[in-house]
Amino acid sequence: MTDSHCHIAGEEFAGDLAEVVGRARAAGVSRALVILAAEDEAETARARSVRAVWPECRFAIGVHPHHAHRFGADPAAAAALVAARLDAEPAARAVGEVGLDYHYDFSPRAVQREVFRVQLRLALARDLPVAIHTREAEADTLEILRDEGGGRLRGVFHCFSGDAGAAVRALATGFYLSIPGIVTFPKAGALREAVCAIPADRLLVETDSPYLAPLPHRGKRNEPAYVARVVALLAEARGISPGEIDAVTDANFDTLFRP
């Protein structure tokens, strides 16, 4: 199995990273895409620890919309910083997570949009996929992807939790959809219906560790081992074996991220 989106270079895992990786391996998780916040020096440094204990991991680097305000006076500086971080990380394979978050609005929306745009342009210039964060901002996210990509961008909508209509609109971009532990929640019926309609060759699974732990771990720190719960739920919903979900999502990860 592959956890296509997690934050195990975060401080939440600094004290027991080796044990977390051990549990992931024991659960059958062979690798992960680890997200690094470009502006976080400490997290960037902890990537070395991740590489040391889990060499199969790859990295995505970006400025999250929550932190876009740091670049409000000069959005281009966000792309320049991400470019420098990509150059310094040999295991980097993507730009992300980047996008828009109109739920919390920790950054002004106009700034979020500009910082998002410059990072998409960087991804195009580097021929890298993008990991998209979008919350309560679907229309603007899709519009910016059309404006900046023109069908040339590739990537994934991370932590997809929408209904079937949202899935259709996201899939129209050509991107993949990555399903998180939310799919196991009792009130996630619309998401469980949506995942049945996602084409197998556009499906990924993730934990978003340390956030959004699936049942029966909800409310606790999430970790990559728990992606097995997502795989099991998707297999049940689609009426196939976990091994089939495992095989197709691993192949999709290879296609998108070229690890």
Notes on the structure:
The chain has a single domain, classed as TIM Barrel (Alpha-Beta Barrel). It contains 9 helices and 8 strands. Strands 1-2-3-4-5-6-7-8 form an 8-stranded parallel beta sheet. Helices cover 43% and strands 17% of the residues. The chain starts with a strand and ends with a helix. The protein is globular. Strand 1 (2-6), helix 1 (17-26) and strand 2 (31-37) form a beta-alpha-beta unit. Helix 3 runs parallel beside helix 4, helix 4 runs parallel beside helix 5 (138-149) and helix 8 packs across helix 9 (242-257). It is an alpha/beta fold. The longest helix is centred in the middle third of the chain and has 18 residues, at 109-126.
SSE arrangement:
Blueprint lengths: L1 E5 L10 H10 L4 E7 L3 H13 L4 E5 L12 H14 L3 E10 L7 H18 L3 E6 L2 H12 L5 E3 L6 H8 L4 E4 L9 H9 L5 E3 L21 H12 L3 H16 L2
Parallel strand pairs: 1-2, 2-3, 3-4, 4-5, 5-6, 6-7, 7-8
